[in-house]
Specification:
This protein is an alpha/beta fold. It folds into two domains: 224 residues, Periplasmic binding protein-like II (D-Maltodextrin-Binding Protein, domain 2); 179 residues, Periplasmic binding protein-like II (D-Maltodextrin-Binding Protein, domain 2), CATH 3.40.190.10. It has 20 helices and eleven strands. The strands form two sheets. Strands 1, 2, 3, 6, 7, 8, 9, 10 and 11 form a nine-stranded mixed beta sheet that branches. A two-stranded antiparallel sheet has the order 4-5.
Length: 484
């Protein structure tokens, strides 16, 4: 199998730590050396004596060993650029947004923050992002695959570098699915409709003494995952973006209502727990590993490896295995499609976004921030992040660094992820910053709280749809929304 395909190649091992990779590299990649990047960005020569500078970065645990190797990463960067210091502040996924917002609101954000491309518009609209389109070198741009790089753009601006393009879908317990008579290989290859999916998850429900001991489907909907369920589902209902090509807000379409109805149907028929609104990411994964659900979501590419690690702990009678867990073969699955619409994969493009404070940074500092962003998003560091998470490499330098990494991912899952990547929703840098920011406001103030109420059976799908339509009309104007 050729795993070097530019858009869909995947790093498939987790046997080397980042520290080992950084220490073992005897030669520097040409695009990651001062001669290729520093000189190209700043125009400096070997005889220049550049001023000392510090670049700050706020970074969550992007992969298993990422944060434990911050010291090594800082040291490596200083070796490449002796006049520069990379200062990394760790954050958990749970407090990342709060920390960043606090710093942004104070007017002193970090130079770099690891965030999703979907919130770039929010900070760009606040005027707190640094446009690097005129600072990056051609060598840097050419190193990245075109599609994920587009996600880091908004309007005419480029606001950082992507770290990965990750498919976020769902995943199944192979043993449970086969016992329920579900042809998971066919589903991987051909996909399924909502009706087919609903029938399958009903077969996965197990009841004992009148109590449900296993659900067909569980999706995390609480905490940091509060918007994921709806965001992922609507892409498969003819709504790949909150905006149409002519920039009308799309969630006022009847297709949106169809998905809201489906969300309630799967709870009301017992396929999903009634307390779904209280299930966060940790509980979702615990339920999957302990056999309380057949299919789980959202499914991340790293889940296969996480399940494999827990399986080995069970075999070894290791007390650190998840309590009461069972051995699970994790199967990558596509989301169902609604109403005859084509399947569209939800992809998360996260990366190192470039920020600025209230005071305009100097040209030299801008160039140094770009060096740091590129250092983190390419080569050995990028390859290691993807290597640990079973993610596709999206840089040529990352693919090169990954060539020596052993493949341990299940071949069926690898092929399924390749198909899902080909169905990815396209980037929409054409959406104006102000529209994107308004959509985030509607999502935060209306869609997320109303979704929680819908999940808790406090409102009907129709009532939520009406609330979204009202908020959209007030926000975008009567002519700025889809009318049906």
């Amino acid at each position: 199998m050729n795993m070097k395909t530019k858009v869909a190649s995947t790093v498939l091992a987790i046997t080397l730590s980042m520290g080992m990779i950084l220490a073992a590299c005897g030669t520097k990649d040409p695009v990651n050396t001062p001669s290729a990047t520093q000189s190209a960005v700043t125009g400096s020569t070997a005889t220049d004596s550049p001023a000392k500078d510090t670049i700050t970065a706020l970074l969550p645990p992007v992969s298993a060993n990422f944060q434990s190797n911050f010291d090594a990463m800082e040291k490596k960067f200083n070796e490449l650029y002796p006049h520069l210091t990379l200062k990394i502040e760790p954050a958990s996924w749970e407090d990342m947004a709060q920390k960043l917002d606090t710093q942004v609101n104070a007017g002193s954000p970090p130079d770099l923050a690891f965030i999703g491309a979907d919130v770039v518009a929010k900070y760009a609209q606040m005027g707190m992002l640094m446009d690097i389109k005129d600072i990056v070198t051609p060598e840097m741009v050419e190193d990245f695959d075109e599609v994920p790089l587009e996600y880091m753009k908004n309007g005419d601006g480029l606001y950082g570098f992507p770290a990965y393009m990750s498919v976020q879908s769902i995943g199944g317990n192979k043993q449970f699915m086969e016992a329920a008579g579900i042809d998971w290989k066919k589903v991987q290859q051909e996909g399924w409709t909502y009706d087919q999916f609903r029938e399958a998850i009903q077969k996965g429900v197990v009841q004992e003494n009148g109590k449900t001991t296993r659900y067909g489907f569980v999706f995390a909907t609480a905490g940091v995952t509060s918007k994921d369920y709806l965001t992922i589902l609507v892409k498969n209902a003819g709504l790949p973006s909150p905006f149409t090509e002519d920039h009308k807000y799309a969630y006022t379409s009847s297709n949106f209502l169809d998905v809201l109805k489906a969300i309630r149907e799967m709870i009301d028929d017992g396929s999903m727990p009634k307390e779904l609104s209280s299930i966060d990411a940790g509980k979702r994964w615990n339920m999957f590993l302990t056999g309380q659900t057949m299919i789980t979501g959202k499914g991340m590419t790293s889940f296969e490896n996480s399940a494999n690690i827990n399986n080995k702990k069970i075999d070894a009678n290791d007390d650190s295995a998840v309590q009461d867990s069972i051995k699970v073969d994790y199967v990558v699955l596509p989301l169902p499609s609604f109403g005859g619409h084509k399947a569209v994969s939800h992809t998360a493009v996260d990366g190192y976004v470039t920020f600025r404070g209230k005071k305009e940074p100097t040209d030299e500092h801008k160039a140094n921030v770009v060096k740091a962003a590129y250092f983190l998003a390419s080569g050995e560091i990028a390859a290691t992040v993807n290597h640990e998470s079973f993610l596709a490499d999206i840089t040529d330098s990352g693919r090169k660094a990954a060539e020596s990494m052993e493949s341990i991912q299940n071949a069926d899952n690898f092929a399924a992820l390749e198909r899902l990547l080909k169905q990815a929703a396209p980037a929409r840098p054409d959406i104006p910053i102000e529209l994107g920011a308004k959509a985030i406001k509607v999502e935060t103030e209306v869609i997320i709280p109303k979704l929680q109420a819908l999940l808790a059976n406090e409102i009907t799908p129709e009532e939520m749809f009406e609330s979204v339509n009202k908020a959209a009309a007030e926000t975008f104007g009567a002519d700025g929304i889809v009318k049906e």
